[in-house]
Every structure is written in C-alpha cells, then in structure tokens.
Amino acid sequence: MPRQRKTLNDSPARWKRIKATYGLTREQYHDILRAQDGACFICQRTPERIRPRRHLAVDHDHKTGRIRGLLCYACNHRLLGYMIKDDVQKAKRLVKYLTRRTDYGYVPAN
Questions:
Q1: How many CA atoms lie within 13 A of 106 on its CB side?
Q2: How far apart are CA 70 and CA 9, in angstroms?
Q3: Residue 52, preceding bond cis, omega within 30 degrees?
Q4: pLDDT (tens digit per residue) in 62-106
Q5: Residues 6 or more apart from 18 whose CB is under 8 A from it?
C-alpha cells in the first residue's frame, strides 16, 4: 500500500506572513499560481511533485521589490539566488551556453 502523503500547509498564519512580507492576498497568490498552470515557472513542477511537499515561494527582485512569480525552493534559492544572483547577463550567458552548437566530440557510450 502506498504511503499517505501529507497535505500542504494552508494555515492562516502562512497567509498572514505572505501578506505582511509580499503584500499578496491568498486570492492574488492563487491568481499567479493559476497563471503559471499551478507549477513553478522554471521547472514546471507542481507543489504536489516537490519533495518534501512545499508551496511555491514568492519570487521577487530584491532591488525593485517587483514580484516576478512563484518558484519552487530549488529554482528560487539555488538557481536564481545562489547561481544567477538576479544577474540578467549571467542568465543570458547560461541560455547561450545551453543552446550553442559545438563540435567538441561525444562522451563514449559504455
């Protein structure tokens, strides 16, 4: 028998913190979530697919305060926060690196 999964925390304290920190109501948060098809904007994982199960974080520009959307912890903190550090030029270089055509050879198959 599969293990029962925990439900996501939907406490009033969570919504009070989101309102105080980001100025978003529960309805506004859910509007953003619907606009993103219920998933992290970058990796497209839903909160139900994230382990441990977590709500999506409100991502914002730390310089301007502009809310950009909802991201999972890995995309928000590890990718944007640690790796990219809100540097648009670094993000563009990352996309260029991933999409460029190279001819350096191939990894041998085992």
A1: 3
A2: 16
A3: yes
A4: 888 899 999 999 899 888 888 888 888 999 998 998 899 888 877
A5: 24, 26, 29, 58
Spatial separation of the C-alpha atoms in residues 72 and 52, rounded to whole Å = 11
CA–CA distance, 19 with 70 (Å, rounded to integer): 15
Q: Distance between CA atoms of 70 and 50, rounded to whole angstroms?
A: 14
Whether residue 9 contacts residue 43, with contact meaning beta carbons closer than 8 Å, is answered with: no
**CA gap 83, 56 in Å, rounded:** 19
Which has the closest alpha carbon to 55: 30, 22, 35?
30
pLDDT in tens, 20-72: 999 999 999 999 999 999 999 999 999 988 877 788 999 998 888 899 999 99
DSSP 19-73: HHHH---HHHHHHHHHHTTTS-TTT---TTTSSS--PPEEEE-TTT--EEEEE-H
